[in-house]
Structures are given as C-alpha cells and as structure tokens.
Amino acid sequence: MTETSTQLVIIGLPGAGKTSFLAALWYLVQHKQVEHRLELRDFRGDMKYLNLIADLWAEFEPLPRTNPNTELTVSMSLSDTATKQNLVLTVPDLSGETFVAQLVGRQFTASYDEFLRRSSGAMVFVSSVDYRKPSRINIAKPLIEETGIVPNGDDENSS
To answer: How many domains is the chain built from?
Structure first.
C-alpha cells in the first residue's frame, strides 16, 4: 500500500462552509449509510468537536461559528477501499475572521506560515448566500472627484 501525506489549507470568508465541509467529511467516514470508499485508519485532533459538528450537520442544524481563539487542526489517515491507497489529510479549521485578518492585514503566525509551506494545496470556499454586487471603479471615479480628494499617484499637478 502506498501512503501519501497531504496537507490542505481550507480558506474562505465567514459563513462560506468550511466547517460544514469538515463536519460532512467526518460524518461520512464515521457512517456507512452513504456508499463511499473512504475508511478512517487513524485520527489526530479533537474528536469531541468533530462529533458535535457532524451530529449537528446530520440534523440540519446550524453549526457553531469557528472561534479564532479555538481554531484546531485535524489529521485523518484515510484509505481508499477500492485502490488501497492511503492518504493522510491534515486540515486546519480556521475561522473566516482569521482569513479576513490575513487577507486585509497581510500577516499571520510563523507556525501558520510553516503549515502553508508544507501544504500541497488549498480548498477555497466561497458562498453565494451573501453575494454583494461589486461597485465598478468607473462609477466611483465621479464620486471621488466630487469630494476633491486626489488619490496617491494620480495628482495631475505632481508631474
């Protein structure tokens, strides 16, 4: 049997479904009601938390928001029962607020940087539930000009 170790980063804005995905995956490997090929061989992380979110997910109940102070990383050693290939999937369950802070502040911890460097990929979650049509820049320009504020580098008198 071959074993591949895969670290994936799950990222996305708040409410995009990151924790729901983790709950569904955990439910799938714990139950046989739905036919699938994944078999859980080993696990590292907070099983109590995963059981809680999987149970809520199965009951169509809202999942608790991931708190930036209680973020966790889970690692599942999975086996594909058809191909007999093994996969160690390590995924941090980060809050959407943490992702926003990283995106806006362009900063994150050294340990998260190391995790990113060891990762082989990312799953980016997006949601159409809270879709906001973006403002086009050509619509904003007349409003900016009306305020009299000249954006940096666009001052016609600076040349």
So the answer is: 1
